[in-house]
Amino acid sequence: MEKVLMKGNEALAEGALRAGCKAYFGYPITPSSEIAEYMARKLPDSDGVFLQAESEIAAINMVYGAASTGARVMTASSGPGISLKQEGISYIAEAELPCLIINISRGGPGLGGIQPAQSDYFQATRGGGHGDYHVMVLAPASVQEMMDFAIEGFELADKYRIPVMIMAEGTLGQMMEPIILREPVTKFYDKPWATTGCKGRKPNVITTLHLPPEELEQRNKHLKNKYDEIKSKEKRAEAFMVEDAELVLVAFGLMSRVAKKAVIEARKNGIKAGLIRPITLWPFPDQHIIEAAETAKIFVSLEINMGQMVEDIKLALNGRAKADFYGRIGVIPNPEEITKVVFGIAEREGL
Amino acid sequence: MEAAVYFFINGIILYTLHKKHWKYIFFDNIISYYIFFFCLKKGGFLLQSTRIFSGGFGSGKSEIALNFALQKKSEGSGEVILADLDLVNPYFASREVKGALNSRGIRVLCPAEELSFGDVPNIPPEIIGILKQDNDMIIDLAGDEIGAIVLGYIHEYLIERQGFEFFLVINPYRPFAGDIESIKELKKCLERASGLKFTAIISNPNLVEETTADIIKKGHEKVVRYADKLNLPIRYLTVEERFYPELAAFYPDIIKGLNLNLRPQWL
Fold first, then answer.
1. For the segment A29-42, what is each residue's pLDDT rounded down to a tens digit?
2. Number of Cβ pairs < 8 A linking chain A and chain B
3. Separation between Cα atoms, residue A160 and residue A157, nearest integer Å
4. Chain A residues closer than 8 Å to B58 by CB
5. Beta-carbon count within 10 A of B93 CB
6. Among the four A125, A140, B198, B244, which has the fewest Cβ within 10 Å?
7. What ipTM is given for this predicted complex?
């Protein structure tokens, strides 16, 4: 099969189109803008809607409205824009509407910079807006996965009626790799809840307002049950050489590829290193961590932030092993740098 | 430097031919020097060259421009300027290797200081002065028509320069470069935005790490068809250095080896 050379952002947008995405609402921001540009070029040709909204807040509320009709819809942004969208995401989560939200993340806080970062981990995995809710978070590590996860993201969103976020570092959005174009999705979920016109049936109402306390609690319990189901079924991670590992690196996204090289280098030097790459950031793949803790003495969280996922690792470990952290912001460290870190920790821990 | 060499050689010729007094040789030399270099300059070679690389997003412009700059510098002693005018965003731009280029004697023009990590349209102001001087200027633009707009600003200085080449870089494996209609549209947009006409095509067929000689050949065939339809010559076929020995015999007139400087090694 002939491959195409694509930027991560382009691959993600093409994946969304192949998943049957019918509407895109957004406001451009570096390093995510190519997604909007790609959608603007392609969506009108496929009977879809592309709309550059006046702001991120408007865009996410358009997603809210369009998702109510059962159509596959998405928006994309980066750090500051994703912050603006949080109110809308909270509404969408409560209304249980499937949609795809993309964060091609850059360094914060505030305006920060436009270089790659993973510092929106807390925001993404804890819900981000007000109320008890979660969005599912997928972290691709290659341009191919940008396309694959866009398709999978829509499937998961429809299956669980939940907003799905794809979070990738700016570099992954910008860099190019050859990929295989996936077959377009042709089978879609039934959506009896959608507001598609109520001729011959009772009207479907999409609302997030629940004034009676019993009703509000009932809604929250319902959401909690759904989140528990997702936690039990959808945690995903990739494990690499962890069977006998004494030192386990944990890294997601592009960082995991750097970490893998460092693991190989460490093994060459007799250090029993391994890697766990969380693919779903929420639900966090804690079972993988627990299993690796049978042999591992220390876990090292490698992040392009100042230490966020390391807290989930500690929660998963619950004292079973030590957890350490190494992070940068605005740059993706190269394998040599990480290898040095691994050697340093291995020496300190006597491994 | 050119003047010294010229005076020396011309001096010897004048002396051996005419056996004139040194004073006459000196004045002869100065007058003929000015006539000689005036003609050269009007003739459009030696003192200036201007190469502009434009094309779709991700067609390989920056890597190619960088390689041209390094090659130009290694060929001669003239001033080589690499203007990184990617105003769209700073990911994978030549400014990342500014230090290394400077140390090899190449002057890099790019947004100043902290703006070099930004996505604000900042054109280095010194570019206009530099365009009026004698040097080898290599201009690397951002992708698509958005990237080519910047040329509008320096257009009047560019058309005054000699040795002018405006390249359309094509990688047929990129989206929106897979059929002639898209390429025609791209060419039209880029020429409209820049106010300049392309002089040639650079064929850059590749799938980065997954490139094979066969992929290059197949892709190049496609670019040849585009070139035919666009009525533009293919000036270069750029291939990664590792494919050069294998392919040089097939495309002896246009092949050019490239070293990739902007792509992280660990990919």
1. 999 999 999 999 99
2. 64
3. 6
4. 5, 7, 176
5. 23
6. B244
7. 0.89
